[in-house]
């Protein structure tokens, strides 16, 4: 299920070394990653990679009362020693940063970007996934701000927003491989099983193209 990746891999680590026969890949993030990893982790393992999963439902960079990601990232590195990290956060980041109003003014975006950049430094080679548009308009505003912050952080991105909401709008169904598929869950936020299959193919292709995993 290959698809042209022009524009989907927004940035790559230009100094990335060629992939070894087996990379240790950490899949981490919020409930979006918890759903996605059910497909992505087996797919990457089938390619011969050592995959670890640490997805925390209900967490976010604005939600340290669930998981303090700035403190958690170094602990993940110590525990898993990943060669590559795939991170997906921001879906539920509806809260305020301390001393900053809730999403989505410029200070909020800048603080989100700062935290993403810091986590990337802790993780090493990291690919962040952008957040597709949800069905709910107010949450869509948050997801747009999260994607702005990810781009502002100037970290390697795999642009799933461009896959599932190329016009910036929520789409429950899309055509893939010539067939119309339901790609989003009934909650209007998460990926469906078909959506996870598509996202897994896009991510694996992007990581391979960046020289980070063997395909």
Describe the structure.
This protein has one domain: Rossmann fold. It has about 220 residues and is of the alpha/beta class. About 40% of the residues lie in helices and about 15% in strands. It has helices spanning about 30-45, 70-80, 105-125, 135-150, 160-165, 195-210; strands at about 25-30, 50-55, 85-90, 125-130, 155-160, 175, 180.
Q: Kindly, what is the distance between the CA atoms of the first and last residues, rounded to a whole number of angstroms?
A: 13 Å
Counting DSSP E segments of at least 2 residues, the number of strands comes to 7
Describe the oligomeric state of these chains in a short phrase: single chain
Percent of residues in helices: 25-40%
**Side-by-side strand order of the widest sheet:** 2-1-3-4-5
**CATH fold field value:** Rossmann fold
Structural class category: alpha/beta
CATH architecture heading: 3-Layer(aba) Sandwich
- Name the CATH superfamily classification: SGNH hydrolase
| Secondary structure tally, helices | 6
Keywords:
Rossmann fold; two-stranded antiparallel ribbon; five-stranded parallel beta sheet; alpha/beta; 14% strand; 215 residues
Short note summarizing the structure:
The protein has 215 residues and is an alpha/beta fold. Helices cover 39% and strands 14% of the residues.
Fold topology:
Elements: E1 24-29, H1 31-46, E2 50-55, H2 69-80, E3 84-88, H3 106-123, E4 126-129, H4 137-152, E5 157-158, H5 160-164, E6 173-176, E7 179-182, H6 193-209
Parallel strand pairs: 1-2, 1-3, 3-4, 4-5
Antiparallel strand pairs: 6-7
Helix pairs in contact: 1-6, 2-3, 3-4
């Amino acid at each position: 299920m290959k698809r042209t990746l022009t524009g989907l891999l927004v940035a790559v680590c230009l100094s990335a070394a060629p992939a070894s026969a087996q990379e240790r890949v950490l899949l981490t993030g919020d409930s979006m990653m918890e759903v996605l990893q059910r497909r992505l982790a087996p797919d990457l393992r089938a390619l011969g990679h050592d995959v670890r999963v640490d997805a925390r439902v209900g967490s976010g960079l604005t939600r340290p009362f669930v998981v303090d990601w700035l403190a958690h990232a170094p602990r993940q590195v110590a525990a898993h020693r990943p060669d590559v990290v795939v991170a997906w956060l921001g879906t539920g980041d509806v809260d305020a940063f301390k001393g900053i109003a809730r999403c989505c003014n410029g200070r909020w975006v800048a603080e989100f970007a700062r935290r993403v950049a810091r986590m990337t430094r802790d993780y090493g080679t990291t690919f962040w996934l952008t957040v597709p548009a949800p069905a709910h308009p107010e949450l869509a505003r948050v997801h747009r701000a999260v994607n702005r912050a990810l781009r502002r952080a100037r970290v390697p991105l795999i642009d799933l927003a461009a896959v599932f909401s190329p016009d910036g709008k929520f789409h429950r169904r899309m055509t893939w491989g010539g067939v119309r598929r339901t790609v989003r869950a009934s909650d209007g936020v998460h990926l469906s099983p078909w959506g996870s299959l598509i996202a897994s193919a896009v991510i694996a292709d992007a990581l391979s193209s960046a020289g980070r995993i063997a395909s």
